[in-house]
Design a protein that fits this description.
It comes from Comamonas antarctica. Keywords: Aminotransferase, DNA-binding, Pyridoxal phosphate, Transcription, Transcription regulation, Transferase. Pfam families: Aminotran_1_2 (PF00155), GntR (PF00392). The chain is of the alpha/beta class and 461 residues long. The protein folds into 3 domains: 66 residues, Orthogonal Bundle (Arc Repressor Mutant, subunit A); 137 residues, Aspartate Aminotransferase, domain 1; 232 residues, Aspartate Aminotransferase, domain 2. The chain contains 18 helices and 16 strands. The protein has an 8-stranded mixed beta sheet with strand order 4-11-10-9-8-5-6-7, sandwiched between helices. The longest helix has 26 residues.
């Protein structure tokens, strides 16, 4: 067959895509000319031309008498976020992609998860045989619409430790906290309705609201919680139905809601008929005695959303919500319609881990990691000239800025070339077009030696 310009380029691009996606690893031999000719229906000259193009692009190397081998190039995850894509950092999808980027070479200071070594004490590897042995008959069915009952019973005790009284009929298990948010939006918010959020706040939630067609109104976040004067003005003007708020370990600022503001916020909710959705994904990383709206309100005007992603594993995708029994029943029906059900296997896994004697020890170690990393990262950042939004004793997140840096996106672009990611502040804003000097850093990653070396550089940008 003759070589065609389109043919060899198409083949080269196909092979390059497979290499970058990890189908062929560094040092691995590509299929032979004969194999590709036979399997992909290309002529020999076309295949040779495609291989030569891959050599020119630095992706493969010829070895005399042995064929063509993949060179050691960027890890697969890196191709998802090239440097030029940072110009889209105001796009919420950028950081969502970063959260799902598994490049092991990158220093992911933008990460929203605890370092993997902090979670190793949960020992997921030791429980799967117990899950399979203990529920063989149920592992082939959809399970209860509320979720696995023994885990919901354990959550009654867990919530009780936070001062929230509930029974299993008030608890709905979900496919992560994000599904819980989806269900609340579908149930309570018609398209075009106004929804209140922390500003800065949780970028995943902003993306969900945009997809849902809601109007987003941001309430400025202060070191002790939402700006309540601003909130009341928005309540008077827009009469919204729902406010998504994070009381403890706020993402991205790391701030905690003060007890005084919590009480005043509930008074405003009562006065203006507002429902409060309290997101608490970091409950296991923070002291139980900190102010929570759901503990003060006892799920009368609050919906509590929790997760095991930050304390066990994001891969399990087990979250939950707690609310009134009537609402929980209707949300369970909605979950059945939209998603059929959450994963009972994953829920059984979480239930098994929570019953292990080592679980309490794991939580103590996890809180110790967070507190120690908070102290160390704060000192390292202060030595580098950082200014802090607030001063939590323990926080997975540090919300910082540097004098002379007006737009943290510039630093993000600079560091990405060094395989270090930071989360520029504009991603967490309701209006991402506004320049922000702030950035979110993961305290567990700031203490990494490569990140410390970056901090010692002058200038940073």
């Amino acid at each position: 067959m003759p070589t065609t310009v389109a043919g060899f380029k198409i083949l080269a691009e196909s092979l390059e895509r497979e290499i970058r996606q990890g189908a062929y690893k560094a040092g691995e031999k590509l299929p032979s000319l004969r194999e590709i000719t036979r399997e992909r229906a290309y002529g020999k000259n076309t295949v040779i031309a495609a291989f030569e193009l891959l050599v020119a692009r630095g992706l493969v190397e010829p070895r005399r008498g042995a064929g063509f081998y993949v060179k050691d190039i960027a890890a697969p995850g890196e191709a998802d976020t090239p440097v030029h894509a940072l110009g889209r950092a105001g796009d919420l999808v950028w950081l969502i992609r970063e959260q799902l980027n598994d490049n092991p070479q990158a220093i992911r200071a933008a990460d929203g998860m605890p370092p993997a070594e902090w979670l190793a004490g949960a020992r997921l590897d030791r429980v799967h045989h117990k899950v399979a042995r203990g529920g063989l008959g149920a592992l082939f069915s959809y399970g209860n619409r509320y979720g696995y009952l023994p885990l919901r019973q354990q959550l009654v005790r867990k919530l009780g430790g936070l001062g929230i009284e509930a029974d299993p009929r008030q608890i709905l298990l979900t496919h992560g906290a994000n599904q819980a948010m989806d269900l609340v939006l579908r149930y309570l918010i018609p398209p075009g309705a106004t929804v209140l959020v922390d500003d800065p706040g949780y970028y995943f939630l902003f993306a969900k609201l945009k997809v849902h067609g809601a109007e987003i109104a941001g309430i400025a976040r202060q070191p002790d919680g939402p700006d309540l004067d601003m909130l009341e003005q928005v309540l008077i003007r827009k009469r919204p139905r729902l406010f998504f708020v994070q009381s403890v370990g706020h993402n991205p600022t790391g701030s905690d809601l003060s007890a005084g503001k919590a009480r005043r916020l509930l008074e405003l909710a009562e006065k203006y008929n507002l429902l409060l959705v309290e997101m608490d994904p970091l409950a296991d990383l923070k002291p139980h005695e900190q102010a929570r709206l759901s503990a003060l309100d006892q799920l009368q005007r609050t919906i509590y959303i929790g997760s095991f992603s930050k304390s066990l594993s994001a891969a399990l995708r087990v979250g939950f919500l707690a609310c009134s029994a009537d609402m929980a029943s209707e949300l369970a029906d909605l979950k059945s319609i939209v998603h059929v059900n959450s994963s009972e296997y994953a829920e059984r896994t979480v239930d098994t881990i929570l019953r292990e004697r080592t679980y309490a020890k794991h939580l103590l170690a996890l809180k110790s990691h967070v507190a120690q990393a908070t102290r160390q990262s704060r000192q390292l950042l202060a030595d580098a000239g950082a200014r802090f939004f607030c001063d939590p004793q323990e926080s997975l997140y540090m919300w910082v800025r540097f004098d002379g840096l007006d737009d943290s996106l510039a630093l993000s672009e600079h560091l990405t070339a060094q395989q270090i990611t930071v989360a520029p502040g504009r991603i967490f804003q309701v209006d991402p077009s506004i320049t922000s000097p702030w950035m979110r850093l993961n305290s567990g990653i700031v203490v990494h030696e490569k990140f410390q070396a970056m901090l010692r550089q002058r200038p940073l940008w």
